[in-house]
Amino acid sequence: MVIPGGQRIDGAMLSEVLADIRVPRLGQGRPRTRPDAVLADRAYTSGITRRMLAGRGIKAVIPQKSNEITARERRGPAGGRPPAFDAETYKDRNVVERSFNLTAQWRGLATRYDKLAITFRAAAVLHACIRWLRLLGDTA
């Protein structure tokens, strides 16, 4: 979990979040450190983000903003091809949105009353642990 400064945009933290990914393998071997794809909303559609993901070999499933589409079309052939977009995979992004909405149910997290990032992060981790334990309780 990476907590940015209060006024910092989320897109600036994407590389740090991707750098922290460690998914253990079931058998032997190093943990996976690269997701197959990143499903994100239009806030992450910048060329910088797309180039960073492509450089790491990660598929970007991000719709373009309407003004970017208009600007590219206005340039004609010099505008280049539109980036690939997998609409079927993008439909799975609702899982992420629902997760954020559940987290926002905790008023302290939704309104960010904590002044220190460390206490805000502690509350977010505690909330994630409680949700995880509830999910484990449903499987027994």
Overview of this structure, please?
The chain is mainly α and 140 residues long. The chain has two domains: 1-92, no CATH class; 104-140. Helices cover 47% and strands 4% of the residues. The protein has seven helices and two strands, in the order H-E-H-E-H-H-H-H-H. It has helices spanning 14-19, 47-55, 66-74, 87-90, 94-103, 107-111, 117-139; strands spanning 37-39, 59-61. Strands 1-2 form a two-stranded parallel ribbon. The protein is globular and about 55 Å long. The protein starts with 13 loop residues before the first helix and ends with a helix. The model has no long low-confidence stretch (mean pLDDT 84).
Short description:
The chain is mainly α and 140 residues long. It has helices at residues 14-19, 47-55, 66-74, 87-90, 94-103, 107-111, 117-139; strands spanning 37-39, 59-61.
Order of helices and strands: HEHEHHHHH
Q: Any idea what the shape is? A: globular
Class based on secondary structure composition and strand pairing: mainly alpha
Level of helix content?
40-55%
Total domain units: 2
* Fraction in beta strands: under 5%
Order of the strands making up the biggest sheet: 1-2
Got a strand count? 2
Quaternary structure state of the chains depicted: single chain
Mean pLDDT over the residues: 84
Summed up, the helix count is 7
Most strands sheet = 2 strands, parallel
Radius of gyration: 18 Å
Poorly predicted regions are none
How far from one another are the termini?
28 Å
